[in-house]
C-alpha cells in the first residue's frame, strides 16, 4: 500500500508491505505544488508497485484535483479519505463538513474506547482535540509557532525577527527572546491549561513540531509519529469490511 498525507507544509508518504510494515517513508516540503512533487516521486512509487493508494489531504479541491490527475497516470486505484463523524471507532460532535481530515485521522489512529485522550497535532497549525472514551468532544486550533512569528513580523514595524530557536518559556530580555518565548508559551500554556481542566486525559502529540513543544509541557506526553498512518490504515480497513 501507499499512504499519502498532504499537510499544509509537507507531503508525507509511507509504503507498507502485506503485513503493514513500513518499507519506505519520507516527508518533503511541497511549497503548494504537491502534484509536481508527486510527479518526481512516481518512479519510486512504480518500483514498489503498491496495489492501493490511500490519501489524507487538507489542501482543498483545486490542489486535490491536480494530485488526482498525477496519480491517475500510475494506474493504481486511489482514494481520498472523507471525515465520518459517525464512524464505528469514534463518534464526533464536531461539524464533520469542516473537521480537517488529518485531525480526524490522527484521532482515529489514537482512539481507545477505554481511555480519555487529548490528541495534539503540531503541524502548520497546532490542533488540540479531546476524546472521551471514543467520543470526540471538540477542540482548538492555533497558528503554529512559525506562523505566529510570521504574523508578528508582517504586522509590526519593529519586530524584524524571522529566525531563531524556540527553546524556552521564561521571560525574555531582548526582542528576539521575547518573541520566541512568548510564542512558545502561548502554545505550551494552552496545553497546560487544557490538561489542567481535563486531568484524566492522556496527552498524545504528533507532527513536525511535537518534539519542540512537548519538552515544556508539565505533564507526561506520549510522542507518536505513527498516528496519521495508523488512522489511514484503520479507516481503509474498516471501509473494506463494511
Ligand atoms: N525537514 C523539515 N522541513 C520542513 N519542516 C520541518 C522539517 N522537519 C520538521 N519540520 C517542522 O514541521 C512543521 C510542519 O509539520 P507537519 O506535521 O509536516 O505539518 P503539516 O502536516 O501541516 O504539513 C514545520 O513547522 C517545521 O517546523
Ligand atoms: C487545522 C488544519 C489547518 C491543520 O492542518 P495541518 O497543520 O496538519 O496542515 C487542518 O486540519 C484543516 O484545514 N482543518 C479544517 C478546519 C477544522 O478542522 O475545523
Ligand atoms: K499535520
Offer a quick outline of the entry.
The chain has 242 residues and is an alpha/beta fold. The chain is 38% helix and 26% strand.
Tag the structure with descriptive keywords.
binds potassium ion, single chain, 242 residues, globular, binds adenosine-5'-diphosphate, binds the ligand CC(C)(COP(=O)(O)O)[C@@H](O)C(=O)NCCC(=O)O, alpha/beta, five-stranded mixed beta sheet
What does this structure look like?
- The protein has helices at residues 34-48, 60-72, 101-110, 145-155, 175-197, 210-214, 227-241; strands at residues 2-6, 10-16, 22-29, 53-57, 78-80, 91-92, 116-122, 125-132, 135-143, 202-206, 221-223.
- The mean pLDDT is 97.
- It is 38% helix and 26% strand.
- With 242 residues, it is α/β, with parallel strands linked by helices.
- Helix 1 runs parallel beside helix 2, helix 3 packs across helix 7 and helix 4 packs across helix 5.
- Residues 7, 102, 121, 123, 207 line the site of potassium ion.
Amino acid at each position: 500500500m501507499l499512504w499519502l498525507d498532504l499537510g499544509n507544509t509537507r507531503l508525507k508518504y509511507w509504503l507498507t508491505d502485506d503485513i503493514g510494515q513500513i518499507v519506505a517513508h519520507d516527508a518533503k516540503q511541497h511549497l503548494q505544488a504537491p502534484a509536481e512533487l508527486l510527479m518526481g516521486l512516481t518512479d519510486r512509487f512504480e518500483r514498489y508497485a503498491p496495489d492501493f493508494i490511500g490519501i489524507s489531504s487538507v489542501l482543498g479541491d483545486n490542489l486535490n484535483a491536480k494530485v488526482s490527475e498525477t496519480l491517475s497516470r500510475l494506474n493504481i486505484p486511489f482514494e481520498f479519505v472523507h471525515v465520518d463523524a459517525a464512524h464505528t471507532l469514534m463518534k464526533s460532535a464536531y461539524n464533520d463538513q469542516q473537521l480537517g481530515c488529518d485531525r480526524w485521522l490522527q484521532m482515529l489512529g489514537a482512539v481507545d474506547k477505554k481511555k480519555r485522550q487529548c490528541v495534539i497535532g503540531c503541524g502548520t497549525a497546532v490542533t488540540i482535540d479531546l476524546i472521551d472514551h471514543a467520543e470526540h468532544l471538540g477542540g482548538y486550533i492555533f497558528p503554529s509557532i512559525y506562523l505566529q512569528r510570521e504574523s508578528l513580523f508582517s504586522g509590526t514595524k519593529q519586530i524584524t525577527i524571522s529566525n531563531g530557536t524556540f527553546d524556552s518559556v521564561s521571560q525574555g530580555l531582548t526582542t528576539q527572546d521575547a518573541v520566541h518565548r512568548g510564542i512558545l508559551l502561548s502554545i505550551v500554556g494552552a496545553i497546560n491549561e487544557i490538561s489542567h481542566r481535563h486531568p484524566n486525559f492522556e496527552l498524545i502529540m504528533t507532527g513536525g513540531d511535537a518534539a519542540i513543544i512537548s519538552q515544556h509541557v508539565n505533564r507526561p506526553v506520549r510522542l507518536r509519529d505513527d498516528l496519521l498512518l495508523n488512522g489511514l490504515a484503520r479507516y481503509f480497513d474498516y471501509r473494506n469490511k463494511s
